[in-house]
Amino acid sequence: MMSDRNNPFRIAQQQFDMAADILGLPDSLRAVLRVPQRELTVNFPVKMDGGGTRMFTGYRVQHNLGRGPVKGGIRYHPSVDIDEVRALAMWMTWKCALVNIPYGGAKGGVIVDPKQLSLGELERLTRRFATEISILLGPERDIPAPDMGTNAQMMAWIMDTISMHRGYTVPAVITGKPINIGGSLGRVEATGRGVMLMVREVARRLGRRIDGLRVVVQGFGNVGSTAAFLLDQIGCTVVGVSDATGGYYRPAGLDIPAMRTFTDRHSFRMLEGYNDPGVERISGTALLELDCDVLIPAAIENQITEQNADRIRASVIVEGANGPTTPDADRILAERGVMIVPDILANAGGVIVSYFEWVQGLQEFFWDEYDINEKLERIIVGAFNQVWQMATERRLTLRTAAYLLAVQRVADANQTRGVYP
Length: 421
Ligand code: NAD
What we know:
Number of helices: 14
Order of helices and strands: HHEEEHEHEHHEHEEHEHEEHEHHHH
Bound molecules: nicotinamide-adenine-dinucleotide
Low-confidence stretches: none
């Protein structure tokens, strides 16, 4: 049972309050931005392979529509709950504003362990969930994407379901689709690529050499494995990685391409069974406390808390996951001089390329991968530079600076539009 202290929505509200206090936002506007604008809970049956049906519960939350249609992933995980989805939706609002793409924030989720379902059951669940939340979706309204436990195939089923309802193909209703139905080149790697760029930029600012920089990555899914792979390619030494089955450590550096090949070939991309005599198996908790330069949490929320913040040995944390660090841990780490590149900046690569995918779908005009990676780099490094400059000038943490920039943009848009009616 999660303590109220670690409730992601409470944490998201606390982070917003901190920014609202510093910005001096009027109470009326603060009241609007502190809560989601719309929340939909759906309970729905799915036909199971055994013959019967099983009930599932899912959510779609739209936090703020002030800056445009809303954008945010869909998560399949047994621990999904409404407060987690609310927090993730609010973080999406700030993330889109920080990198200045014309979206508000949303998020969705289904309480399910996708590993326990057959492919057919997953397809029926995905199509029914898409139908249940379809009253909110549309290219000009709400555009989902993948998150933990979902992938490009599920995005294809959602796109197909909405298209069947409409009677024509609607590619821009969802992003993170396979390339052969209007997905964008570079989308699968985009979040991990953004994380790699943030490691590179922070190292540059701190005067550290990339070559041999020792990196630890928690989570070896889409974000973690791509970040590890790209960091390995630019010369970092990835000494530790983990997934839900445990940690893998080699001080001289892991063979990340081999580990990626292994997970590509195994069900649900798990590292369990990966065997290399030079690699030590460690616990997931020990992994976070390894001696390294950069720690990249790229799994789930609340991994760095007041319980372990004192024992983190990295000097830089780059948040690939959403909400991996609690506010208590944030304070302890700031006092210890550990620099954190916050989630709303560090993992924004995914939504930036999702934005490109949406634009390409609307225009029916597709760009090459060079163009996409170059534009991604320009946007995310530009946002990093703005955050770095504000943090340096005003002696703030990178998280506080990122929140001030993002919340101000959202507040301005809401104020300019006014209150209806
Ligand atoms: P994923 O499902 O592809 O991978 C998740 C990984 O985390 C898996 O390797 C899983 O085994 C591991 N994991 C789960 N619980 C763990 C634990 N307790 N300890 C260690 N590892 C654990 O998911 P993803 O898309 O890579 O997302 C990871 C994080 O990044 C999430 O917080 C997500 O919200 C965030 N994120 C994802 C994207 C994206 O484009 N996919 C974009 C922005 C942010």
